[in-house]
Amino acid sequence: MGFQKHNDAWINKPGEVPSFEYAKSSHATEEDQANEGNGAEANEMNVEEEAHAHEMNEETTRTYNTNFALVKGIVFTDPLDVQARSTVTVFYNPSNTNLNGKPEVWFRCSFNRWTHSNGSLPPQRMLATKNGTHVKASVKVPLDAYKMEFVFSESEHGGVFDNKLGMNYHIPVFGGIVKEPPLHIVHIVVEMAPIAKVS
Predict the structure, then answer these.
(1) What is the pLDDT of residues 93-133, one digit of tens each?
(2) φ, ψ for residue 111 (rounded to 5)?
(3) 73-78 mean pLDDT
(4) pLDDT tens across 34-59, in order?
(5) In whole angstroms, what is the distance from residue 109 CA to residue 173 CA?
(6) Which end of the chain has fewer CB atoms surrounding its CB within 10 Å, N or C?
(7) What is the pTM of this model?
(8) Axis crossing angle, helix 19-34 with helix 40-71, rounded to the nearest 10
(9) Residues whose CB is less than 8 angstroms from the CB of residue 199 and which lie 6 or more positions away in sequence, other chains included
């Protein structure tokens, strides 16, 4: 219901209520039933909650639009949903990137956050498509993949890279036998003791 993750972007399914709107409306209905007799106090709470939900809705939309704008018109795959143990073709439009005007574009890919047991695939020269604006490369997705990562470069040996401003391009892989492990956030605090000067 609501948003569907597709190619690492959250897309609203047509004709459905976005999940945050659904959650807001169902939460408000439950609270209305619980606070039926509280009068003005309940109304004040609902107004505050609606304002907060509206802010969250705007923030979510802003984030989605920003992320979508980063790859809009640059990268897409065929098929759209990448399946494990299948072949996927990645289409790339270098004219909207720092590789604009380069005579060649090379595709560099790996899986599972660049940690797949087979390592990175060898760089692949991308081929021109019939429409002339995109280039393409095809890769076989392993059965134990849960995410596909890739970047583009101007030559087989590197040179200028398009790595999505250091974030790399990544697409979820469906149907694999390995599930994506959670990310662990670690906070490191360093405290420096004062240094005394001894003469």
Answers:
(1) 999 899 999 999 999 999 999 999 999 999 999 999 998 88
(2) -135, 160
(3) 89
(4) 555 555 555 666 777 777 666 666 65
(5) 13
(6) C
(7) 0.59
(8) 170
(9) none
The residue with tokens 């704008």 is: 69
Contact 96, 74 (CB under 8 A): yes
pLDDT at 66 over 50: no
| CB distance 112 to 145 below 8 Å | yes
Distance, CA of 28 to CA of 49 (rounded, Å): 8
DSSP string, 14-80: TTS--HHHHHHHHHHHHHHHHTTT-THHHHHHHHHHHHHHHHHHHHHHHHHHHHHHHHTTTEEEESS
**For residues 135 and 105, what is the distance between their CA atoms, to the nearest angstrom?**
8
Phi, psi at 94, each rounded to 5°: -70, -15
The candidate with the shortest Cα–Cα distance to 18, out of 40, 42, 1, 35, is: 1
The CA distance from 168 to 166, in Å, is 6
Nearest one of 81, 77, 79, 80 to 90, comparing CA atoms? 77
Q: Give the type of residue at 168.
A: N
The token duo for 87 is 């072949």
pLDDT for 22: 38
Whole-number Cα distances in Å, 28 to 39, 43, 70, 157, 187: 15, 11, 34, 57, 36
